[in-house]
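Interim report, section 4.2 (structural modelling).
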Amino acid sequence: MAEKLVTIAHGGGGTRMQDLLRDTIFPLLDEAVLLDAEDAACVDVPPGRVALTTDSFVVSPLFFPGGDIGKLAVCGTVNDLAMRGAEPLFLTLGLILEEGLPLEVLEDVLRSVGRWAASAGVRIVTGDTKVVERGMADGLYINTAGVGVIGEGREVSIKGALPGDVLLVNGHVGDHGIAVLSNREGFSFDVELESDCAPLNGLVETMLGTGRINAMRDPTRGGLAAAVKEMAAASGCAIELEESEIPVREEVRAVCEMLGLDPLYVANEGKLVAAVPEADALSMLAGMQRNPYGADTRVIGHAREGRPGEVSVLTPLGTHRLLRMPSGEQLPRIC
Amino acid sequence: MAEKLVTIAHGGGGTRMQDLLRDTIFPLLDEAVLLDAEDAACVDVPPGRVALTTDSFVVSPLFFPGGDIGKLAVCGTVNDLAMRGAEPLFLTLGLILEEGLPLEVLEDVLRSVGRWAASAGVRIVTGDTKVVERGMADGLYINTAGVGVIGEGREVSIKGALPGDVLLVNGHVGDHGIAVLSNREGFSFDVELESDCAPLNGLVETMLGTGRINAMRDPTRGGLAAAVKEMAAASGCAIELEESEIPVREEVRAVCEMLGLDPLYVANEGKLVAAVPEADALSMLAGMQRNPYGADTRVIGHAREGRPGEVSVLTPLGTHRLLRMPSGEQLPRIC
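Predicted structure of the assembly:
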C-alpha cells in the first residue's frame, strides 16, 4: 500500500484539512473541545495570576532516544510554566508540516503529544496546521503556547535568589543534548543514553509543598551554565558551584571530551535548578528524591554576596574557575 | 557596510541570542514584561471565561501590499479571539528564523508586530526564537497564540445561527488572497490591490454594543464559502446568500476570472461574517458602517430551515447554485 503523505491541500482550510483533523489529529489528542473547531477555545481559568509562555520546537531528528518532538513540545512548555510556580492547565498546538511528510510520522508525533499532555495533566484545547512546500521546513516544526494559574503566594521568578540560598539540581545534566546529538551523528554506546525530557510540574508541586523556592529555571539551551549565570545576574548576587557535586553521566562526559564540549553548557529538557533558603533545603531535597523526576537531586552550590552575575566553580583540584555565559550555539536544532 | 544576517548562533540561548533580544527584538515590541526574560510571563487576567487560540504564519512573500507577516500574525490571532466575543489581551510570539535572514527584514517584521499589537490594544508578553539552517525554512515563520477574556453573556460561537438570522459581511471579499498572490506572481494592476488584513476586535465591540451576534467566523483560508458552510453545518441550519450583494472588487474579480478562481473561496484577513437576529440587523449594520473596518458592510443573505450545512447562492440570473466546501488549497502559503 502506498505510504500516505502530507500534501499542500492538507493546509488549505477545506475538506482535506477537515479530514486530516477529524481522522488523524483530533482522535490522537483526545480532547473534546477540539471537536468544536471554533476559532478560539473558551475555557474556565481559576482565579489567580496567570502564567503564559510559548516555545517553538525544531529538533532534528524528530525521534531520539528518550523522546521525540511531540514529547518535547509538551514538556518544554509545561516546564516553562512550572518554573514560575504555575499549575499548567492548557496548551495550544501549532503545526508547520512539510509537504511529503509521511502521515504515519505525524501520527506518531501526535500520539506522543497526547500521551505526555495526559501525563502532565494539561489539555490541548486549540491548534493550527499549516503546510509548506518541500524544502521549506524539515519534516515538521511545532509551537506550543501554555497557560497556567499561579496559586496565592506561589509565584516563582528567576530574580529571587538570595545570598546563603542552596542550589539544587534534580539529576544528571547534559543527557538531552548528548542523546540527540549522538543519535543525529550516529555515535554508538554500549549503554544507550536517553534524553531526560520530562514534565516537571509534579516535581515543582512537591517542592512547593516542602518549602520556599527563591529562584528557579530549567536549564535548556545553554545548559546549566547559562541558567545559573542568568539567575545570578537577575538576582544581583554571585553563585558558587561545586563541580564534583554536579551529576554528569559517564557517557555524557565521554562524548563531551571527544567533542571538546563542557557538559555544563549542554541542553537539558527535564531538569531544573532552584535556589532555596538553607532552612528549607534538606526537607526539599528529601521530598524531591522521592519523586521519579527528582531521584538524583543534589545540592550543587550556593548563592553568596559578590559581584552580581558572577558564577564560580570549585574544581575537584580545589581551584576556582569562572563560568562564562555561552555566546552562540554548541549544538544546533537540539530542541 | 556588510548586511547583518541571522546566524545559527542567534538561536543558541547564549550571549548572541541575548544581544538579538536586547538590541533588536525587545525595543521594537516595547513591552516591559519581556525585559524580565522569565521562562513564562505572569499577567493578571480579569474574571470571566477565557478564550485561547493559536496560529502559525508561513505567508510568502513576507511583505505584500497592505501588510506583512508580522501584521498578519497579530491580526490573525486577535481576530480569532474576537470571533468568540473575547477582548484580546495578550499574545505570545514564536519566531522560527532561517539562517541568513537579513536582520533588517526581521526588524521590519517586528516593527510591524509592535505597531499592530498597539493598534489592536494587545500586549506581546512572552516569546521564543529558534534558528534553523539555510534551506530549512523560508525566511521566517511566526506563531502567535492569544489570550482574551469574554465578558458575561458575550460569548459567541460558530454554532448559534438560527433560521431567520441575517448574514452580514464587513466589506469586500478576496482582497487578501489576490493581493498576496498577485504580488508573489508579479501581476500588475493599474490600481494596486491591497490585503484587507486588519484587527477586528474594535468592530466586534461595536457590533456587540448594538445587538446580539448568534454566530460569527472570520473567512480566512477557504474564504467566505468555507466560513459560511462551516457556520451552516455547525448550527444545523441552511444558509442562502445573494451573490449580487456580496462585495467583490473589480480587480479581484478580474484576477479570479483569469485564473479560474471563485472569489468566495479566496482568503480574507480583515473580514468577518456574522449571523444576527433580524431585529438587530439594521442597527448593527449602521453601527458597523461607521467603523473604519466596516464601512462597506452588507447584508449578504440569511439563515433558514433546511438541510443542515446546505449553502445556496442566488445568482444574478435568479437561479440557485449550491456552494461546496473547498477540498484543498487554491492558493498555498497565503497566511
